[in-house]
């Protein structure tokens, strides 16, 4: 039942190489600055709503680096969360496109200016549209995982990610049941990023168990809890979980303990929150301590990304808004039915 030991790209100390650490740091920094730009845009009236990932970069960047990117069942399907900008950037997305979605310009490749910030969708990378109704992605993911189950010959697996409060929805339980039926298991990596809040509802008021991962045990699947503020621990935990699901074609439940650095969304102001661990600050201290980089170089990179995002904002400001007549495009409507208008 247990898989061959995963081929971990870490030293026995559990530490990643300098090269990998610097790559992760660069992406975490970019993801953080991107989110800061999106929040500024919202505050300046250049967008209607912000929700996103400050505090989840240490987990989401390794996720984006480790998935098998591509189109179709031979690559991984990703049913991501609206806080997964770190994963998206790590997969190679252009941050300008996130600004386009925030401003709802016609040039937004994720939704042609029709969806909220953070609601990515990239067909050529199997990134299924992020859903606003929380946790429904756990039901939808069953579909792609079934298309990749044992015996189909498909090489890819399905990864689904949601928040802690959303696990109280029936869709999460549906995924536990459907993924683990004996003899009919599906290759589904279920990820819960636990920031201990559902908008303003605290974890303790919502769940009767200490860890959400423990719920997987009743379904016979391997589970793990990882410090999602530690990119190295996250990298190793993800590598192990992905390896298991890929080789066994069975489900795995991984819970990452993360921070929520700007509150729930723009609805609560999107201002910095005190008392939370900042994964970026913590990782910077680590890599400076290991002499992989110095503070001066980090500040230089921060300034360069900040300028890059400011320049991108200026470009996006000049781009067109969607034509009102396009409102029926890419949705289900009678007008779009074969046979034409009624
Ligand atoms: C089905 C559904 N119910 C309620 C909401 C309103 N809502 C939006 S986000 C949210 C909290 C989600 O918390 P959690 O799952 O912990 O994810 P987080 O946003 O903290 O990452 C709620 C209740 C919704 N979007 N969809």
Please, could you describe this protein's structure?
38% of the residues lie in helices and 9% in strands. The chain has 342 residues and is of the alpha/beta class. A 5-stranded parallel sheet has the order 1-2-3-7-6, sandwiched between helices. The chain has one domain (18-319): Rossmann fold (3-Layer(aba) Sandwich). The site of thiamine diphosphate (TPP) has 14 residues, from strand 2 and strand 4. Thiamine diphosphate (TPP) binds at residues 83, 132-134, 162-166, 195, 197-199, 264.
Secondary-structure element series: HHEHHHEHEEEHEHEHH
* Total number of distinct structural domains: 1
The top-level CATH class is: Alpha Beta
Percent of residues in beta strands: 5-15%
| CA gyration radius, whole angstroms | 20 Å
Bound molecules: thiamine diphosphate
Q: What would you give as the CATH superfamily? A: Thiamin diphosphate (ThDP)-binding fold, Pyr/PP domains
- What is the CATH third-level topology name? Rossmann fold
Q: What is the helix tally?
A: 10
Quote the distance from N terminus to C terminus: 56 Å
Sheet with the most strands?
5 strands, parallel
Structural class by SSE content: alpha/beta
CATH architecture: 3-Layer(aba) Sandwich
Give the strand order of the largest sheet, numbering strands 1, 2, ... along the chain.
1-2-3-7-6
Say how many strands there are. 7
The overall pLDDT average reads: 93
* Helix content class: 25-40%
